[in-house]
Automatic annotation (TrEMBL):
Organism expressing this protein natively: Glutamicibacter bergerei
UniProt KW keywords: Metal-binding, NAD, Oxidoreductase, Zinc
Family statement: Belongs to the zinc-containing alcohol dehydrogenase family.
Lineage: superkingdom: Bacteria
Pfam families: ADH_N, ADH_zinc_N
Keyword field contains Metal-binding: yes
Protein name per UniProt: S-(Hydroxymethyl)mycothiol dehydrogenase
Length: 361
C-alpha cells in the first residue's frame, strides 16, 4: 500500500521550501522504493527552487543520496531489499545510440520512475533530477540505484550522487588526467575542489587551485592542491604559466562556467592541452574566441556532464578509494542537518561557508 512520508518541496518560484507529507506509491515494474539515509544539499536543488531549471512546480527536492532498498517492483534484478545504494540520475538504457557505441556515460534515454509521487491532495510532484530524496522514502527507477559497501559513511559517499562525482569525473574521466601531469582548476567550490581531489587521485603532480576566496583556496590545499592562485591579485593565466615552466597546464578545468573563466582556462593550457568545462553556464551567456587561436592551440575542448561518469563503474571504485584513505570524502561534509534545516542550508550555500550540508534521516 502507498506510504505517507515527510518530505521537502518547493511549491513556487523562490518561495521558502516546506516540509510536508507526500504519498509514495508502491513500486511498479522496474521501480524501487528506498529509505533515504542521507541527502546532500546541492546547488541544483537551489536552482529548482529559484526557477532556474523549469516551472514544473511543486518540486520534490533532493537527489544526492545514500539509501537502503525497501521494496522492489517486478523485473528488478540489479538490487534487492536491504541493499545499500547510492542514487544516481544516469540510469542507462543499454539500447540508445550512445550505449550501442559503448559510451553509456552519454546515454540519451536515461530512466526515471514511471509513477508519480504526490501531495496528500493528489497534486503530482516533479522529483529533482528524477530522484526527489529530501524525503524519508522516495520512488526511483531500479537503474538509479548503485549498490555500494555498507561500511562506508553514508553522508560522505552519498555526495558521489552529484557534485563530488561531477568534479572527480571532470578530472579523471573527461580530462583523462595522467600520472605526472599538471592540472589547474578555476573555481574552488564543491565541484572545483572535487576536481582537485580527482586530479590527486589520478596522479597529477602539479595541481593548481584558482579562486578569489582565500578560505576556498585553503580547502583546496587540504584536498590536494600543490599551489594556489588568488585571482583577485593578478592574471591567473600568467600565474598558471609561471608555475608550469611557462607552458601552461596539461589540463585546465573550468568549474565556474562563465565566459571569462572559460577564456582563462583556454589560454592557461599548454599547447595540445585539454580544457574541461564542468561549471554550468546560464542560458544567456555567450563565448567569443579568435578562431585562429582555437586552431593554433590544438588539444581538446570538452564539456563534462556529471563527470562523464558511469555509476555502476565509478561509484564502487571511488567508495573503495575512500575506504583505503586515498579519497577524502569526509572533508566535503561540512555539517549534518535535519529536513527542516534545508532553507537555512541554502542561505549558507549563498554565503559560501559550506562545501556540503548533508541531511541525515
Amino acid at each position: 500500500m502507498p506510504h505517507k512520508v515527510k518530505a521537502v518541496i518547493s511549491r513556487a518560484k523562490d518561495a521558502p521550501v516546506e516540509v510536508v507529507n507526500i504519498i509514495v506509491p508502491d513500486p511498479g515494474p522496474g521501480e524501487v522504493i528506498v529509505d533515504v539515509l542521507t541527502a546532500g544539499v546541492c546547488h541544483t536543488d537551489l536552482h529548482y527552487k529559484l526557477g532556474g531549471i523549469g516551472n514544473d512546480y511543486p518540486y520534490l527536492l533532493g537527489h544526492e543520496s545514500t539509501a537502503v532498498v525497501s521494496q522492489i517492483g517486478e523485473n528488478v534484478t540489479n538490487v534487492a531489499v536491504g541493499d545499500r545504494v547510492i542514487l544516481n540520475w544516469r540510469a542507462v538504457c543499454g539500447q540508445c545510440r550512445a550505449c550501442a557505441k559503448g559510451q553509456a556515460q552519454y546515454c540519451f534515454n536515461t530512466a526515471n520512475a514511471t509513477q508519480k509521487m504526490t501531495l496528500e491532495d493528489g497534486t503530482e510532484l516533479s522529483p529533482a533530477l528524477g530522484i526527489g530524496s529530501f524525503a524519508e522514502k522516495t520512488l526511483v527507477a531500479a537503474g538509479q540505484c548503485t549498490k555500494v559497501d555498507e561500511e562506508a559513511d553514508a553522508a560522505a559517499v552519498g555526495l558521489l550522487g552529484c557534485g563530488v562525482m561531477a568534479g572527480i569525473g571532470a578530472a579523471i574521466n573527461t580530462g583523462e588526467v595522467k600520472r605526472g601531469e599538471s592540472v589547474a582548476v578555476i573555481g574552488c567550490g564543491g565541484v572545483g575542489v572535487a576536481a582537485i581531489a580527482g586530479a590527486k587521485l589520478a596522479g597529477a603532480t602539479t595541481i593548481i587551485a584558482v579562486d578569489l576566496n582565500p578560505e576556498k583556496l585553503e580547502t583546496a590545499k587540504q584536498l590536494g592542491a600543490t599551489h594556489t592562485i588568488d585571482s583577485s591579485k593578478g592574471d591567473p593565466v600568467e600565474a598558471i604559466k609561471e608555475l608550469t615552466g611557462g607552458f601552461g597546464a596539461d589540463v585546465v578545468i573550468d568549474a565556474v562556467g562563465r565566459p571569462e573563466t572559460y577564456k582563462q582556462a583556454f589560454y592557461a593550457r599548454d599547447l595540445a592541452g585539454r580544457v574541461v568545462l564542468v561549471g554550468v553556464p546560464t542560458p544567456e551567456m555567450k563565448l567569443e574566441l579568435p578562431l585562429l587561436d582555437v586552431f593554433g592551440h590544438g588539444g581538446s575542448l570538452k564539456s563534462s556532464w556529471y563527470g562523464d561518469c558511469l555509476p555502476s563503474r565509478d561509484f564502487p571504485m571511488l567508495v573503495e578509494q575512500y575506504k583505503q584513505g586515498n579519497l577524502d570524502l569526509d572533508a566535503f561534509v561540512t555539517e549534518r542537518i535535519k529536513l527542516d534545516e534545508i532553507e537555512a542550508a541554502f542561505d549558507k550555500m549563498h554565503e559560501g561557508t559550506v562545501l556540503r550540508s548533508v541531511v541525515e534521516l
